Amino acid sequence: MSQSRTERENQFRGMRDSARQIFQHALAEASIDKAFQRHVSCERGVLRIREDLYDLHSYTRVFVVSMGKAGHTMAQALEAQMGSLLEGVVATSVEPTSLVRGFRYFRGGHPTPNLESIRAAEAILRSLTAQNTSSLVIFLLSGGGSSIVEKPINDEISLEDLVATYHALVLSGAPIAEINAIRKHLSAVKGGRLARAAYPAQQVSLLVSDVPDDTPDALASGPTMPDSTTVEDCYAIAAKNNLLEQFPESVCGLFRRHVLEETPKSDDQAFYRSRWWPMLSNKVAAEAAAIAATKLGFGVELDHSCDDWDYEQAAEHLLSCLRHLGQQRSRVCLISGGEVTVKVTNGGVGGRNQHFALACAGKIAGENITVLSAGTDGIDGNSLAAGAVVDGTTLERAKARGLDAAAALARFDAYPFFDILGDTVVTGPTGNNLRDLRILLAY
Questions:
Q1: What is the CATH code for 32-151+187-227+263-280?
Q2: Domain residue ranges of the chain, discontinuous segments joined by +
Q3: Do the Cβ atoms of 217 and 227 come closer than 8 Å?
Q4: Is the pLDDT assigned to residue 347 strictly greater than 80?
Q5: Closest to 16 in 3D by CA, of 304, 427, 324, 422
Q6: 161, 164, 166, 171: CA torsion to nearest 10
Q7: Which of 412, 387, 418 is nearest to 170 (CA)?
Q8: Phi/psi class of residue 114: alpha, beta or left (left: φ > 0; alpha: ψ in -120 to 50)?
Q9: What CATH number is given for 5-29+283-442 in this structure?
């Protein structure tokens, strides 16, 4: 007996709900609070961070710098473990509902810097240069820190020029590690320069990562780590992506004259008393999603191979893998972590996750497939959504509403399309940032 239209619609709606449920579970399990409870504790004046112990009685001052989209959440989590005797600076992109006592707050810009980004950088640099050998500096680093805390290395680069440079980089389609290589060499705070400012203090960095696991110094453009990239890398990246014609003259001139300043490397004395510990990464979120999908009765596979791929190539690859899995058994789930790249040529409203989902919608029309793509920070591009969910009925439902999926894709304008359909994934800013998750279901 053929399936009724109502039964079919209910089935697809149920699978979209399952995808949302898997994503929400991943967000909850990969929380900063839970990570700090696992990895940080403080008893009788001894602070434990992963495998390190710090006798707080041996320091005359403990200073905390928390920066990135998770800046406030990380400061809260540290206070919960250490108590309320902390002091420092929090720089984040959202207005927190409450403040942690002892911290100065700055609301930096994202995805491009603003005046508060520069004020935050200047306040942090002033505080760090006041530290000495008896100081302990705790850095809490999360994604988004590149723009949230920023100060140009050259005074000739104005805030307006800085914003134009960031726009060119973000829209270039280059992988985040390449974008951050250039950011590091244009900045007074990135690429290990905060560590150099804090020297000779004891330093420890706690990382909530939104970059590939093998490039930790790309997180927030590596302000406290030895930089693995060089000025020669920057010149090559700029040439490959035709960036010189897009940069403002104050930045372009540095590239043309080959006068970028090199960043601190691993043999720099700034890192002699430095440690770095990961607290959370995309892997934690992906594994939490896998557990949730298993509990819902799906056979689960993880595939992170398309990290930093072009969105079209990633969509073809993941859907091909999912269809292959679906031939072997029913109810399968493919989970993919990391980010895809989208080279934006005109400005609609949306982000890479909604763009990826919309591209998938055209490839799965009529199939029993559901795809959710969303950012763990709750923010996708310039939209109010974290991402979107599509399935085999998306194009059909869109047509009934008078929506043109191909036109929305061409305009990079996915958010209005999904908002009308009710298929956006909206969480609000999560106070976390562990890259993106793509959840593909076949049944």
A1: 3.40.50.10180
A2: 5-29+283-442, 32-151+187-227+263-280
A3: yes
A4: no
A5: 422
A6: -160
A7: 412
A8: beta
A9: 3.40.1480.10
